[in-house]
Specification:
Layout lengths: L2 H21 L3 H28 L6
Length: about 60
């Protein structure tokens, strides 16, 4: 998966899981969705760090 595609995937999943977690009827269900959102956000952070570490030549 290309990095931009992976970034987009994790961004969409994080947003979706966050929405589900915030509207869940059960605390356990909310916690599960919020943990999944957190996992996807962590991956986004890693992808951003990878891009920053690679520097501007990575986009060429």
């Amino acid at each position: 998966m290309q990095q931009q595609d992976e970034f987009s995937y994790h961004s969409q999943r994080a947003t979706h899981e966050l929405d589900l977690g915030l509207t869940a009827d059960s605390g356990a269900v909310a916690r599960a969705h919020l943990q999944l959102a957190s996992m996807h956000m962590e991956r986004l952070r890693e992808l951003g760090s990878d891009e920053s570490a690679a520097g501007p030549s990575a986009a060429d």
